[in-house]
Amino acid sequence: MLKIEDLSVNYGYVKAVKNISFEIKSGEIVSILGANGSGKTSTLFGVMNIVKSKGTITFRDQNISTLSTDKRVKKGLILCPENRRVFKDLSVEENLKMGSFSRGNYKEGLDMVYSLFSKLKDRRKQLSGSLSGGEQQMLAVGRALMSSPEVLMLDEPSLGLAPVIVDEIFEVLKQLREKKVSILLVEQNALKSLKISDRAYILETGKIVHSGKAKDMLNDEKVKKAYLGI
Amino acid sequence: MQILQSIILGLPQGALYGLMAFGIALIFRTVSVMNFSHGHAGMIGAFIAFTVYTQVNNIFIAIIAAIISAFIIGVLIEKFLMRPVKHLSHGAMLIITLGLLMIFEGLSVLIWGTDYQILPGIYNGMPLIMNLGENILVMPANDIAVTIIALIVSVVLAFFLKYTKIGTAIRARSQDEVGASVVGININVVDSIVWGIGIALSALVAILIAPKEYVNPNMMVNMQLYGFTAGVLGGFSSLFGAIFGGIILGILEKIVGVYISPDYQMSIILILIIIMLVVKPSGLFGKSTEGRV
Fold this sequence. Notes:
The complex is a heterodimer. In chain A, the strands form 2 sheets. Chain A has a 6-stranded mixed sheet with strand order 6-7-8-3-9-10, with helices on both faces. A 4-stranded antiparallel sheet of chain A has the order 2-1-4-5. By secondary structure, chain A is α/β, with parallel strands linked by helices. Chain A contains 10 helices and 10 strands. In chain A, strand 7, helix 7 (163-178) and strand 8 form a beta-alpha-beta unit. In chain A, helix 3 runs parallel beside helix 6 (133-146) and helix 4 (106-116) packs antiparallel against helix 6. By secondary structure, chain B is mainly alpha-helical. In chain B, 73% of the residues lie in helices and 3% in strands. Chain B has 11 helices and 2 strands, in the order ααααββααααααα. Chain B starts with a helix and ends in a 14-residue tail after the last helix. The interface between A and B is medium-sized, with 29 and 17 residues.
């Protein structure tokens, strides 16, 4: 469904991502794992064209490498960025409304998000800057869902959250898979993301050093020791 | 009753300072650049209004033409000057606006010369005469028209930013650029609109003060200064703080003029700004300061 070939991202002379290739099939959850600074966020920014990148990106058999960020969003590539990036001086509801800026039905999306995260409904008139970290993360995921994603990319959705809330968010991801949404999950919490993933790629200093089925990785002692620290 | 008189007389001027500050703050908040060429861009708008007025002899057509032209000037500034350096540094953008200031000044002298040109007021009816106890207050009809226009424009902009989709997108972009990108907001389009609105506001201010100041290359120098000052007073982080800051500034100016001396109007206000920056840098209505240069 989404195929990335030879993607490179450079910041000046610094090569953050070096010619990586990966793909996500329809209805799959794919994880990209790796330590800090291994190029995970840069990869996603490259896919969304938030930073300049080289390489070929094919979505539904169509080359989208030259499209701008907003056109990629329009096609259904939705990123839920690291550090939440919610609009702090906008209310929860306005944030969600912005989620449906270029795609998705506002009313239907709102019902779905509120049914997944009932806490957001209680706080819908509140400024999102006044929410707790966990609620802001729910809002970030909710905002991404408002765009009715075809491929949902999540960057560190568990960052800095209490385990209960992490469980809640992962539960939502499982429900989304049942709705045939393809998910690209970027996480430091390797064990947790491998458990719900179909396949995984391991990034190290901008290169893919290992890839395969998530189940096999969980059983491979070598991989676990070398890359995942489990 | 002199104080009431100062307040009433300060309102029209203050409303214009507010509009000026609103434009500067809108651009600052959205693209994080202090636009030093703001006033001069508006001055070009006033000259355009003057040129159109000499052709068609209708002030309203002249105003509309000038505002549309100013909007286009703003869009062009964003597209050709700001966009290429957007992600390089705020410093580069700042220097470009300083350069633009000089370019606009030079251009206006080249095209229109240094003569003072007359642009008529919007409404030249009977002045409003108020009886305040012993004093009689005379308020020119044009001043009333100016205040009403400034208020209407502020309210319309407030509704636009608060309730329309594109207005909300502008606020979203000013709060988080990456966040705005990933929901599909085209950052470049939003920035162009913001520059367009900002410069159009400056042109409107220039046209509205033209009956008093005449149309000339330096007509907006004071406005630029007062616009900044009003923004600092009200707080750049709040757009409505900017408008209230402007109104307060206009009234203060008159009060200083009446009770101290007109010679000290500018200096006392600038001292006030220094005090403001020391005591509450975020401004009267501002929230916590953001680390922007």
